[in-house]
């Protein structure tokens, strides 16, 4: 069984000592997943509107073959939301779309190909949170496709209906500690990167969770970028996402066509990336949320969670 699978970290937030639960959440190390919903995509649906026109054209011309290739390069996770939560993942990177050819306002996850209905994914997360009342998740809705005002209204209402009083209202990031969230029975912080949610108290604006993107296939360039953006991290007013991921370019896909993202790009570079992760420190000026592809391939979540022990030692040292 891969190291990242299991439920050893299902209650890791609730198990933190008081010294850490009383610390601003923006100073804790939190494991997250990139394109969190891609563990299943629908090869029978049309190619998504997030793809360039020529990709949509090729997929329509060479449907079965093109979609087999797209699956290999669209999937960045193997674990379901429930499995990710059990493994300790607490930040979810979410991209959503309507189906332009479908009547109604239904919203789906999307990354090249359509995934599950958003409502089904949210219910799965909510079910898990109901069983683990001290765990808190960040839901980062950062890309929207083929969505009009009525779609956004539908999605915001859906989030409110599914999570109800678990939703934490937008407020000062510095005031958000696990103690504060537990005291108010909050378990969900939703970031909604669209003006439609500007006047909705329990939707947080995207600028409170910057996630700089390296957009490179080279691990050493990625690490240099992660270091630079950490140095530039906002001292106040926001959480911070370090995207420890490599991004394929068209020529990368062409060279590794039959292998796919995991086999061609991710696995061979994971040791270098994980060495960087293991060397990090949370706290002021340090890492906060770190995201990865295929979180089960290494002991990713556990490594990130254990970084918080450095804060505990640091605070113990100061108190003597």
Automatic annotation (TrEMBL):
Phosphatidylinositol-specific phospholipase C X domain: from which residue to which, for each copy? 19-193
Q: Which GO terms describe its biological process?
A: lipid catabolic process; signal transduction
Under the GO molecular function aspect, what terms does this record hold?
A: phosphoric diester hydrolase activity
Family matches, as InterPro entries: PI-PLC_domain, PLC-like_Pdiesterase_TIM-brl, PLCXD1/2/3, PLipase_C_PInositol-sp_X_dom
Quote the PROSITE patterns the UniProt record gives.
Answer: PIPLC_X_DOMAIN (PS50007)
User: Which named protein is this?
Assistant: PI-PLC X domain-containing protein 2-like
């Amino acid at each position: 069984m891969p190291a990242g699978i299991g439920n050893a970290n299902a209650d890791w937030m609730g198990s933190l000592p008081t010294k850490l639960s009383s610390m601003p959440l923006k100073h804790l190390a939190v494991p997250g997943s990139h394109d969190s919903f891609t563990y299943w995509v629908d090869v029978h649906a049309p190619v998504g509107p997030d793809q360039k026109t020529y990709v949509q054209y090729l997929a329509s011309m060479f449907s079965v073959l093109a979609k087999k290739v797209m699956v290999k390069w669209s999937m960045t996770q193997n674990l379901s939301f429930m499995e990710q939560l059990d493994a300790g993942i607490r930040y979810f990177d979410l991209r959503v779309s309507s189906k332009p050819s479908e009547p109604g306002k239904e919203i789906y996850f999307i990354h090249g190909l359509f995934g599950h209905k958003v409502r089904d994914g949210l219910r799965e997360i909510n079910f898990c949170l109901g069983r683990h009342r001290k765990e808190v998740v960040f839901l980062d809705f950062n890309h929207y496709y083929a969505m009009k005002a009525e779609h956004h209204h539908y999605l915001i209402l859906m989030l409110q209906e599914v999570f109800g009083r678990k939703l934490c209202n937008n407020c000062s990031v510095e005031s958000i500690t696990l103690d504060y969230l537990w005291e108010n029975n909050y378990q969900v912080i939703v970031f909604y990167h669209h003006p439609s949610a500007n006047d909705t108290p329990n939707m947080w604006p995207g600028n409170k969770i910057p996630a700089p993107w390296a957009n490179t296939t080279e691990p050493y360039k990625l690490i240099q970028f992660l270091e630079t953006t950490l140095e530039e991290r906002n001292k106040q007013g926001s959480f911070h996402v370090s995207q420890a991921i490599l991004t394929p370019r068209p020529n990368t896909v062409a060279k590794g066509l039959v292998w796919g993202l995991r086999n061609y790009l991710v696995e061979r570079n994971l040791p270098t990336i994980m060495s960087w992760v293991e060397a990090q420190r949370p706290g002021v000026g340090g890492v906060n949320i770190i995201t990865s592809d295929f979180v089960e391939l290494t002991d990713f979540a556990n490594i990130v969670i254990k970084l918080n022990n450095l804060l505990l030692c640091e605070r113990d040292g100061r108190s003597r």
